[in-house]
Design goal:
Length: 115
């Protein structure tokens, strides 16, 4: 069993910053990667950033240049630092832990950016 819990969402003005956290626990041996996704109202869920087991990172267009994914292995926690936020970044942000046994999702954390 794997538990994934996101936190750190909230309401922020355009141009502001937020740091999301993804804490994971349980049977996480051989973890492959941790991903951040987001889903805006009436839109499909989209990948934002990935951090692989070896530390390599990958960003899709929404996150490039403004978001930074990082991790604290001692705390089994991955972070998503989001800067220069825009109203278009408003979404529920989900963390996904990728293991050989499958992908495990958290419940999501709401990020709302006001103009």
């Amino acid at each position: 069993q794997v538990q994934v819990v996101e936190s750190g969402g909230g309401l922020v003005q355009a141009g502001g910053s937020l740091r999301l956290s993804c804490a994971y626990s349980g049977n996480i041996a051989s973890l492959n990667a941790v991903q951040w996704h987001r889903q805006a109202p009436d839109k499909q869920r989209e990948l934002v950033a990935v951090i692989k087991s070896g530390g390599g990172t990958y960003y899709t267009a929404p996150g490039k240049g403004r978001f930074t994914i990082s991790r604290d292995n001692n705390k089994n926690t991955v972070y998503l630092q989001m800067n220069s936020l825009k109203p278009d970044d408003t979404a529920v942000y989900y963390c996904a832990v990728v293991l050989p046994t499958g992908i495990f999702w958290g419940q999501g954390t709401q990020v709302t950016v006001s103009s």
